[in-house]
Design brief:
The complex is a heterodimer of chains A (249) and B (318). In chain A, 26% of the residues lie in helices and 31% in strands. Chain A has 6 helices and 14 strands. Chain A has helices at residues 37-53, 68-77, 95-106, 128-135, 189-195, 236-245, and strands at 2-6, 10-11, 33-34, 56-63, 81-86, 113-117, 140-144, 146-150, 153-160, 163-170, 173-177, 200-204, 212-218, 227-231. Chain A has a 7-stranded parallel sheet, sandwiched between helices. In chain A, helix 2 crosses helix 5 (189-195). The termini of chain A are far apart. The longest helix of chain B has 16 residues, at 14-29. In chain B, a hairpin with a 4-residue loop joins strand 8 and strand 9 (137-143). In chain B, helix 2 crosses helix 3 (94-107) and helix 4 runs parallel beside helix 7. The chains are: A alpha/beta (249), B alpha/beta (318). Bound molecules: flavin-adenine dinucleotide and adenosine monophosphate (AMP). Residues 6-8, 36, 38-39, 60-63, 90, 95, 98, 116-117, 119-120, 123-129 of chain A line the site of adenosine monophosphate (AMP).
Chain lengths: 249, 318
């Protein structure tokens, strides 16, 4: 089984966003970088498929040279090889452009299973996985939270309000993954050390003319007025009063 | 323009009504007319009920008894060929975003998903605002594609009803092949979950890293049982530690909730968590750190150790 997983480098924002002075980017001066939780789960799923069925797994990103960090993190967890499509301007690539570059690179490599996040953490386009599937003429199930492989077929499940939708598609196929499909492992110390030595296949890519051009970022309104009900146990009667006032009891 | 409507059990979803509202507004500002597209088994009867628009295209097919992605995409492409719209708008729901992605891949243009605002200049749609980071940041985007493919962020524009003459109703019949059905639901396994779901609960009690263990969540369960219509949720830290199943996670990559009251216990208030509960009417935070960001995003705050406060609340309610 040859498995591909695609990830996107994004800032690891926690308590709040700070924007750059021109309002075009998230200010990453004091931030680390990560990938979406959906993609972390896609990495874990790729490793588990290879552990169970044999074969090899590859992680791919289109991003800056610094995105080697995300590729090596995936390798440290157990992914076998990595491809970097190098584009320092990756933030200005729209989903069509990104999908074309990925599809062109992976087409000759003959993957059986191609995993993507359901949506990227930052731009949330909900498109790249489906677009790559279309360019390779492969079936694609989006937003899956369970995957099993039997005799060249994949059984994928999506969680909906009423329960679980079950899909069955022949391989090769593309899946976009949601967090919850598994609980990702942490890399071992040995994994981290050996990941440093794995060579990363690198190639520069150039952005085609975009259809979507960012003009700026802004924060939505957050309008809540805090009322402190108290410190420690002295707050309990006030909390009970509020619960009553709000109809919770 | 073309408005793609989504139906649930042969009724229009709330997101579809919002899409229809946005489409009418956009058409008026761009001097355009609206064609609505209904796809599926038993949707014909809905067509005459759509007011304030010019045309309804109905793709009624016994075989389309649920969302069948590639078949639906083929039908939308046919509708685009027939009506040559400048703008195509669909609801930004799971199915709506899946469908628009498949259509935009086939047309080889990028779609702007989960839009919250539209900017018209000289009678033409030029820019939109769309959700980034699950809605915790907004991105203004210029759109250079033709046609323009969009989805509408649910709840961004409230649905409004419209009056007017009944629309012209036309049939759209599209020949579907076996390949169009290669991705489809084979089976639906009903949910085993009991009790009130996170999205239906009136009160949600969320637990974060401050809970410290899976056992500690039992006291949140107990507190929930003493409140009206309450359910327990969690942060990603709690689900990643296997204290709670992922289905309990609230946030960007979990559930989006909108209860009357959200009680956040031992939760720092990271934006990716808060974006999942920002539609709560009131937020009450219990946190021992007065500097925790959650206090900037809550209505009521209790500063203290949740392991003392929650048991005291339970004792008081009993
Ligand atoms: C792309 C992306 C998507 C994400 N999606 C989600 C998501 O869907 N949902 C989600 O939750 N997170 C999500 N995250 C993670 C998020 O950024 C935070 O890491 C996470 O929400 C933090 O969880 P927490 O508040 O439980 O933990 P912490 O941030 O560690 O906060 C723990 C808090 O508990 C308080 N505390 C500790 N002990 C006590 C005590 N005894 N009594 C009272 N208070 C106490 C502390 O003061 C602290 O404020 C996402 C991250 C990324 C990058
Ligand atoms: N620059 C990128 N490099 C590699 N994979 C990407 C990139 N952008 C998006 N993807 C993949 O496509 C998924 C969906 O992205 P999007 O269409 O932007 O929501 C992500 O979760 C990733 O798996």
């Amino acid at each position: 089984m040859k498995v591909l997983v695609c990830v996107k480098r994004v800032p690891d924002t926690g308590g709040g966003f700070k924007l750059t002075a021109d309002g075009m980017h998230v200010d990453t001066t004091n931030l680390g970088f990560t990938v979406s939780p959906h993609e972390e789960c896609a990495i874990e799923e790729a490793i588990r498929i290879v552990e169970k069925h044999g074969g090899s797994s590859t992680v791919l990103t289109l991003g800056p040279l610094a995105a080697q960090e995300q590729l090596r993190e995936a390798i440290a967890k157990g992914i076998n090889s990595a491809i970097l499509l190098e584009a320092e301007d990756y933030e200005s690539w729209d989903p069509a452009a990104t999908a074309h570059a990925i599809a062109e690179t992976v087409k000759p490599l003959g993957f059986d299973i191609l995993l993507f996040g359901n949506e990227s953490a930052d731009t949330c386009n909900y498109q790249v996985g489906l677009r790559v599937a279309h360019l390779l003429d492969l079936p694609c199930v989006t937003g899956i939270k369970a995957l099993e492989i039997h005799n060249g077929k994949a059984i994928a499940k999506r969680e909906v309000k009423e329960g679980w939708e079950v899909y069955e598609v022949p391989l090769p196929a593309v899946f976009t993954v949601k967090e919850g499909i598994n609980t990702p492992r942490h890399p071992s110390l040995r994994g981290i050390m050996s990941a440093k030595k794995v060579p990363i296949e690198q190639k520069k890519v150039t952005r085609p003319a975009p259809h979507l051009v960012r003009k700026g970022l802004k924060k939505p309104q957050e309008g809540r007025q805090l009322e402190i009900l108290g410190q420690g146990l002295e707050a309990v009667p006030k909390v009970i009063e509020k619960l009553r006032e709000l109809g919770a009891i | 323009m073309l408005a793609i409507l989504e139906t649930v059990k042969q009724a229009l979803s709330e997101a579809s009504l919002e899409t229809l509202t946005a489409a009418r507004d956009l058409a008026q500002k761009t001097n355009d007319s609206v064609t609505a597209l209904l796809i599926g088994k038993g949707v014909q009867a809905l067509a005459p009920t759509l007011k304030g628009i010019q045309t309804v295209l109905v793709a009624e097919d016994q075989k389309l008894d649920s969302y069948i992605p590639e078949a639906f995409a083929k039908i939308v492409l046919e509708a685009i060929t027939r009506t040559s719209p400048k703008i195509v708008l669909a609801p930004g729901t799971e199915c709506g975003n899946d469908l628009i992605a498949r259509v935009s891949a086939r047309l080889d243009v990028s779609a702007a998903t989960n839009c919250t605002e539209f900017f018209v200049e000289n009678g033409a749609l030029k820019r939109v605002t769309r959700s980034n980071w699950g809605g915790s940041l907004l991105e203004e985007v210029e759109i250079l594609s033709s046609p323009i493919l969009l989805t509408l962020q649910p709840h961004a524009i409230p649905a409004q009803s419209a009056d007017g003459p009944a629309p012209a109703i036309e049939t759209l019949s599209v020949a579907l092949s076996e390949k169009d059905f290669r991705v489809r639901v084979k089976e639906l396994i009903p949910s085993e979950k009991k009790g009130i779901s996170l999205t239906d609960a009136k009160v949600v009690i969320g637990g974060g890293r401050g809970m410290g263990s899976a056992e500690a969540f039992k006291m949140l369960e107990e507190l929930a049982s003493l409140l009206n219509n309450a359910a327990v949720g969690a942060t990603r830290v709690a689900t990643n530690n296997n204290w709670r199943p992922h289905s309990d996670q609230i946030g960007q990559t979990g559930a989006q909730i909108a209860p009357d009251l959200y009680i956040a216990c031992g939760i720092s208030g990271a934006i990716q968590h808060m974006v999942g509960c920002k539609n709560s009417k009131k937020i009450l935070a219990i946190n021992k750190d007065p500097e925790a960001p959650i206090f900037q995003r809550a209505d009521y705050g209790v500063i203290g150790d949740l392991h003392q406060i929650v048991p005291a609340l339970i004792a008081e309610l009993k």
